[in-house]
Amino acid sequence: MHMHDIYDNQGRTERAVLVGLKLARHDDEIWTMAFTELKGLVETAGAEVVTELLQNRDQPDPATYIGKGKLAELNAVIEELNIDVVVFDSELSPKHVRNLENALPCRVLDRTQVILDIFAMRAKTREGKLQVELAQLHYLMPRLAGQGAAMSRLGGGIGTRGPGETKLETDRRHIRGRVLELSRQLDEVRKHRDLHKKRRKKQEIPVIAFVGYTNAGKSTLMKAIVERYGTGNREVAEGRNRLFDTLDTTTRQVQLPDGKTAIFSDTVGFIQQLPHSLIRAFRSTLEETAEADLIVHVVDASHPGFDVQMATVYDVLQELNVLDRPILTVFNKIDLVPGAWIGNDPNSTETVRVSATLGDGLDVMMEKANDLAGVRHLLVTVEVPYKEAALTSQVHREGRIFEEEHREGGTYLKAEVPQRLADELKAYFLQEAEEVVPQKETKKIYFDFTTPESDDVVH
Ligand SMILES: Nc1nc2c(ncn2[C@@H]2O[C@H](COP(=O)(O)OP(=O)(O)OP(=O)(O)O)[C@@H](O)[C@H]2O)c(=O)[nH]1
Ligand SMILES: [Mg+2]
């Protein structure tokens, strides 16, 4: 059971008006981007945005979100333009919803409901569907009073008009029961997945997770990589130019440049003010990221607000507590902005520029991913014969050298090297190699895309 709020019963495209409230504390650029994004979301959900209404205020009106005058104006617009649904630009409080529904002759939605609706349309797997329904119920619960209409859509069997106190209680109990049931079913689905995960861990296969803003190109990149380097199932759905195209996690096996197998995973994209009920419900999907050995942060470098989008992604990653992982930032869609200055990402371990559609930069990306994805490093103490000079210079290139001496039998080295190189050096070990435990530090969220530096210019 899903709420397809945007469609009416006849399946006719609904006519929507967007209402934006710009508060004194809002940053101009970020606010405008979020509002433009809301338009995209409403269209993605299938409605036609007929017009927009904006208001500047210090604070939202405590009763009706927008002021009384604006509300009157909105009423006139609804009448005149034959509007079916009003969409407000942020998450409305239960009180706002109640008052606005009473004051307006059409349906009232907020940004969160639109996102929930898109998720409901997209969910394909059992887990995805359960998660969306759970998020919808979490959103609905505190807003039950006055949402008789919403309840009838959601519950079906429940009476249509409310909110008599008794009915409200029945609704609450019904929803609570459903929440419990959904949580139980989700637990079951997840248990299965955990089994898979354990097996993977045992085989020491590194997991590389794509994260990024919605529409950044994660799926397109996944497809390009799997086509080139995939082993096993190479089917990946085509990326599409629409918001929240991907909801369910796809994982595929890929061969890294050093020959080792890795698992790449593509999952749901992020957005500003990702509804909290959704983060809660999708926590386990998002937490897959927490299991990853490497996080690949895909950025749409051609988007004018890509820095804001990056900050949003880092906010979510911080909430998921995964900023201690190595991060490879991939500036994608570079074909659309050739020569543009892009900037650095102080949060990432490495940066690379690619075009997923043209395939540019993928090999460099794979090499960097290879180096960052949990490749075990070992501290070796060796004496390499002089005739093996190539090996010595390889240690210089790939390792970190702590001691070096030219001895009679060869070059004495104490160095930290990748597992693969340690294997090659095995014959010359003077003592057992030691495992190097990677240092994990929590990074600070910090951005500065304002001052171009000469070596950051893309040629
Ligand atoms: N020009 C250009 N377009 C790209 C590139 N990579 C992706 N796109 C386009 O960007 C749009 C979004 O791509 P997706 O791969 O679906 O994006 P996503 O990050 O998976 O999006 P969600 O699943 O919604 O989070 C599609 O229309 C792609 O064709 C690129 O390198 N260059
Ligand atoms: Mg996708």
UniProtKB/TrEMBL annotation:
Q: What is its main location?
A: cytoplasm
For this protein, the record's Pfam families field holds: GTP-bdg_M, GTP-bdg_N, MMR_HSR1
- Protein localization: Cytoplasm
Q: Which PROSITE patterns does its entry note?
A: G_HFLX
Superkingdom of the source? Bacteria
**Where in the numbering of this chain does the Hflx-type G domain appear?**
206-340
Q: Where is the signal peptide?
A: none
The record's comment on protein family reads: Belongs to the TRAFAC class OBG-HflX-like GTPase superfamily. HflX GTPase family.
* Record's subunit section: Monomer. Associates with the 50S ribosomal subunit.
This protein's name: GTPase HflX
